[in-house]
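User: For a benchmark we're assembling, each entry needs the component sequences followed by a predicted structure for the full assembly. Here are entry 17's components. Please fill in the structure.
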Amino acid sequence: MSRTPEQIAADRTRYEEHQRKGLEFAPKALPDPSPLPAPELPAASVIHKETIPGGWYWWTELKRGEAIRMALTHGPASVAMVAWNAVDPSERLNLPDTVKVQWTTAIGKGRVIFSDMGRVMFSVIEDSSGAHDGLVGGSTAASNAARYAGEARRNTRDNFVLVAGKLGLTRRDIPSVLTLFAPVRVREDGSFVWRPELTHAGDYVELRAEMDLWVGLSNSPHPLDPNPEYAPNPVSVTRFRAPSPAADDLCRTATAEAVRGFENNAFALALA
Amino acid sequence: MTRTIRTAVQSHRIPAESPWSGLVRKGQTIRIVDSEGQQAVDTIFYRANDFAERYSAQDTMRAQRAAYIGTGTKIISNEGNVMLSVTADTSGRHDTSAGACSCESNAVRFGHETKYLHACRDNFLLEVSKHGMGKRDIVPNINFFMNVPIEPTGEMTIVDGLSKPGDYVEMVAEMDVLCVISNCPQVNNPCNGFNPTPIEVLIWDAE
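Assistant: Structure for entry 17:
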């Protein structure tokens, strides 16, 4: 196929318009991080509370409209996360699409998290830091052995092999992981930098499920965490019924890309 | 022995917008040539005798503590093993954060009217199906010759490719691997200069 200069010019103009909106409009529409301390959740909304010990994993079902709060109530920690569509787990968290479609690797309040099928899995309804990592991924047995003295330490890769296994899935099903509370940024030369000043004591994130999900969590130190000690603190996780999104819901309206993602969700639900 | 097209044991011309797959044996060198320049080449590797072990973008980035692929990059599997080493690169940085285009993500990104355009993940699905694999095996890939700078703020956008006609990247296989390529059909962003073109794959035995 060879395309005409006119076609190429028209496509470039259209791309640059999307790019301009993506880079300029969306950040202006997004709010500041959620204030701290995190407010108490209404007791009647709480479905389950879990404390994940340092190094360990946990998973939960999350129905559409429910949400999960992860909070650093016991000190610093990082929480790696994977997720699958509970009905068809071949649909799963897709970080390349999540960051590409939203024109940023900086996931924070007002953003959404996409599956590989152009649908929204989560809305980030609260987030006090915006300091998360979708690039580097989690620790492995080998990365921990290279970092920490002493016996082998629990790691995110093995945790997710276990989560997948207990859901009847295998290592083929483990997607790239999003690590919450991991302040990774990219320097001009492409190297990663850990920026602890982006995080705060008591940081929390709330993710609202936009389809029925299985969510896996691993509380293991991020591989770029500069702490020379293996010292993950327990993390508090609360599964709760989120308030019903209003017509002007931030996550559903903040960007043209999110609007189209939710249109895909609505279509899938209408078919069900 | 210099590597020329005459000494290559395999030579494949991959038409614009098309997939390809082939085996690269341990010790062999694979060269991917961007024949006409500014052509993204979406690529995934699988261990030849165990497809459940496959390229991991995150493990590769973690191991080198940097986001872009270039000479010296060790291409790492989900089991932490080195699959290939990048030994030559005439063009500059290559992406492994932005993944492959799909009908579904195009529709979200560029409007529902762009859904019915051929896309890399359809290429991948067609190609991995020949090897008994499916959608769950299509993992975040390498985008050779695709330029996706990530700003310190997190901003990320696909910009014009850096590759000139004839630029290439070479890798030595550190294990037997199945290489699966989608010669990217995308025309909604500049990864192919809005004009998808053919590429070439050459393979040489160990010297």
